[in-house]
Design goal:
Layout (H helix, E strand, L loop, with lengths): L2 H11 L4 E5 L4 H13 L19 H11 L13 E6 L13 H4 L6 H12 L6 E2 L15 E4 H10 L2 H9 L6 H6 L1 H9 L8
Antiparallel strand pairs: 1-2, 2-4, 3-4
Length: about 200
């Protein structure tokens, strides 16, 4: 049985219906998300998950604002097939569209109890190899309590990843804000790509 299915079964015993909202995400899917945020078709959010007026932002400010909540295409951990965004279907109101914002997963949020349960399992290392790469605010990606990564498979991918490979991939892409991204790529790589929970590396 896979680690996720074991975790799902444990959650069911505890009264939760653990579901994956987002798992594998292709480069093309990630670039679609990025480009829609860069052009205003999707909201770019500030650190409090409040929509920004992107017309007031410089290209660098917009790039870094998008990176706060959305991975750079080519650098998303979801590309590896090792990372998932989870929620509790039992707590989801009928017809509710999940936004993956802090209010949903904090204490008092609809998915707060699931994540409190996950906190306990992560603390005593009974989470079948899963961990939260964005467990804390390190000045890069905003904390994502819903985001789990399977360490035995994800860590080798992370170790093999490089800024040079990312530069090559992005240079050949149709990504919005390309010039700004490439100009600041070393800082972006340090701050938003490898600046994660390192306890499993």
């Amino acid at each position: 049985m896979s680690p996720f299915l074991r975790l799902r079964d444990d959650a069911e015993v505890a009264g939760f219906d653990l579901r994956v909202l987002s798992g594998f995400r292709s480069f093309d899917r990630q670039i679609s998300i990025w480009n829609r945020k860069a052009t205003g078709a999707l909201a770019a959010l500030d650190s409090a998950a409040v929509p920004l007026d992107i017309e007031r932002l410089s290209a660098r400010e917009l790039t870094y604002a998008i990176l706060r909540w959305s991975a750079l295409p080519g650098a998303s951990r979801h590309h590896w097939g090792t990372d998932i965004d989870v929620y509790d279907e039992n707590a989801r109101p009928a017809g509710y569209e999940i936004d993956l914002v802090p209010a949903e997963v904090e204490a008092g949020g609809m998915f707060g109890p699931l994540h409190e349960w996950l906190d306990e399992r992560l603390a005593d290392e009974t989470c079948h190899g899963f961990f939260r790469p964005y467990d804390d605010d390190r000045g890069g990606v905003a904390p994502e309590r819903w985001h789990l990564s399977h360490a035995p498979v994800a860590v080798p991918h992370e170790r093999a990843f490089s800024a040079d490979h990312l530069r090559t991939t992005l240079s050949a892409s149709d990504i919005e804000l390309k010039d700004t991204i490439l100009e600041h790529l070393e800082d972006i790589y340090r701050r938003f790509v490898i600046n994660t929970n390192r306890q499993h590396t």
